[in-house]
Write a structure and sequence with these properties.
This protein is of the alpha/beta class. Helices cover 36% and strands 19% of the residues. It folds into 3 domains: 211 residues, FAD/NAD(P)-binding domain; 117 residues, no CATH class; 135 residues. About 1% of the residues have low confidence.
Length: 529
């Protein structure tokens, strides 16, 4: 009978980061992944011959620089290719095209509004100040404000001192970001409708909220903190797809001695006398370890894998109140040629970045209106990328991949509708929406893969299809994520930890939860020794 120091449940990127850090500290670690590929939602799969899709997550921005450095990921094959700019086609034949070149973007915004071009510079400086305030918080274990432990109080004092050290303008901006809607916040800076609509999109990703819903301004900041090589607001592709990130982390983990098994699902966590002791595999085998670290979300971990009677009703009540509310789907297409946008015809640099179907604030809010009443958006917000223009290795020569992140696709459809019946209509609706801007799209599709929130739950174990393992809403952040009193990666069951996106600092291909959980596990193991 095998015995390990730690069993990590789930081979998503956070689980792999967790395992790598634990093994580097000398622990004997086993990772168990139910699917045939590693990476969880950060995976690459050859869905159609020759076409390698970043099936779920499709861009990288938040991967913590300390993880890239500590695990030496470039040596293990990680290469990030910059994603340059955001192109927004408009129904009137115009467009907005912001790029990483500051001068070009300034001129482009000035084409729409000279006032906004000036404000854009100031807005960028203000957001950088906000990012500087929040950035250290992403790398710290959340304090417990309900305790009198001096160490916890020092953390709160640290945050308070940092806040006091900001200018009065930055303090006001920070408070507004934590409380306002994305549009109300952007309204204070800009007048151009398409600019506000496109920027507000970052505030709704992964949340069942509209661009006018309070709290979305913070989500906007969360996505604004994209970092590649220390440059704020940098987004990119991993060469070979997002699975290449997970594979690089897995390679670093194996080098440190981690054993990784795929196609190995588990049915429950073994609990004896209030302590986690091991896991039962789907084939009935039992594997034991001193510590169990779950990268699954709270519902999967506490409701599905733990037998009743091991957790208090009060704690389970908190878990059941935790909001998932998946709101997005994905449509991946294999293309015979490039989409041809009516507002800027032909191939060109505008296709190399993100292509955002977000033509107006009203358009964005109407998309949310559909979702509120249990329908997928008739005209959704779509964030598209064509990774083959930057990384031709993911498709056959001359062919392309179009990856479409779609919002809104509510997990809970109105009475009488279900996702299995609506899947085809959802995919076709996305194509119809794109066709309004790029009429040739229908003629160039070779294959399409449609992923609904129900697919994300069934296939990737994301409860209610939430890509962040739970909404990034204010009441579910920092010391409240996932539930009050258990934000420090520990759970009510001794030796059982959480290390996935449902813990601080949240979702995105970040790795932060996996790393921080590993550091807390090592602290506890050392303390118990």
């Amino acid at each position: 009978m095998s015995k390990y120091d730690v069993i990590v449940i789930g081979g998503g990127h956070n689980g792999l980061v967790n395992a790598a850090y634990l093994a580097r500290a000398g622990k004997k670690v086993l990772v168990l992944e139910r699917r045939h590929v590693l990476g969880g939602a950060a995976c690459t799969e050859e869905v159609f011959p020759g076409f390698k899709f970043s099936v779920c997550s499709y861009v990288v921005s938040l991967l913590r620089p300390e993880i890239i450095r500590d695990l030496d990921l470039p040596r293990h094959g990680l290469e990030i290719l910059p994603l340059d700019g955001t192109f927004t086609p408009m129904p009137n034949g115009d467009y907005l095209w912001r790029v990483n070149d500051h001068g070009k973007t300034h001129r482009e915004i000035a084409r729409h509004s000279k006032l906004d071009a000036e404000a854009y510079d100031e807005f960028g400086k203000a957001m950088q100040a906000m990012c500087r305030f929040v950035k250290p918080i992403l790398s710290m274990v959340p304090p417990d404000p309900a305790t009198l432990n001096p160490k916890e109080l020092m953390k709160l004092l640290f945050i308070g001192k940092r806040f006091q050290g900001m200018t009065s303008d930055d303090k006001y901006n920070q408070v507004q970001l934590m409380t306002m809607s994305a549009i109300d916040f952007l309204d204070q800076w800009f007048e151009t409708d398409v600019l506000k609509a496109t920027m507000s999109a970052s505030g709704i990703i992964g949340t069942f909220l509209g661009v006018r819903s309070p709290g979305t301004a913070y989500v906007l900041l969360h996505h604004y903190m994209g970092e590649i090589d220390g440059a704020f607001r940098s987004w990119g592709f991993a060469r070979g797809g997002t699975g290449a990130i997970s594979n690089a982390i897995a390679d670093a983990a194996r080098e440190a001695g981690v054993e990784i098994r795929t196609e190995t699902g588990i049915t429950n966590i073994i609990i004896k006398s209030g302590k986690a002791k091991g896991v039962v595999l789907a084939n009935g085998d039992e594997i034991y370890a001193d510590v169990i670290s779950s990268s699954l979300d709270p519902r999967q971990t506490f409701v599905r894998l733990i037998e009743k009677g091991n957790l208090s009703e009060e704690f389970l009540g908190e878990v059941n109140r935790y909001k998932f509310r998946g709101s997005s789907g994905k449509v991946n297409m294999a293309l015979d040629a490039l989409p041809n946008f009516r507002c800027l015809p032909g191939p060109g640099a505008h296709l190399r970045g993100a292509i955002s179907i977000s033509p107006s604030v009203e358009y964005m809010e109407r998309a949310y209106d559909d979702a509120k009443y249990g329908n997928f958006s008739r005209r959704p917000y779509i964030d598209m990328v064509i990774p083959t223009l930057t990384d031709p290795s993911v498709a056959p020569p001359g062919k392309h991949i179009l990856s479409c992140f779609v919002q809104y696709a509510p997990y809970k459809l109105r009475l009488g509708l279900n996702w299995d019946d609506q899947k085809e209509a959802f995919g076709n609706n996305v194509i119809d929406t794109i066709a309004e801007h790029a009429p040739n799209i229908r003629d160039i599709i070779l294959h399409k893969q449609v992923i609904t929130p129900l697919d994300l739950e069934r296939e990737w174990g994301l409860s209610e299809g939430n890509i962040f393992q739970g909404e990034l809403s204010l009441e579910q952040l920092f010391f409240l994520r996932p539930v009050p009193g258990y934000a420090q990666f520990r759970t009510p069951i001794k030796n059982l930890y959480l290390c996935g996106s449902a813990t601080h600092p949240g979702g995105g291909i970040m790795g932060g939860p996996g790393r921080l959980a590993a550091l807390e596990i090592l602290k506890d193991v050392k303390g118990a020794a």
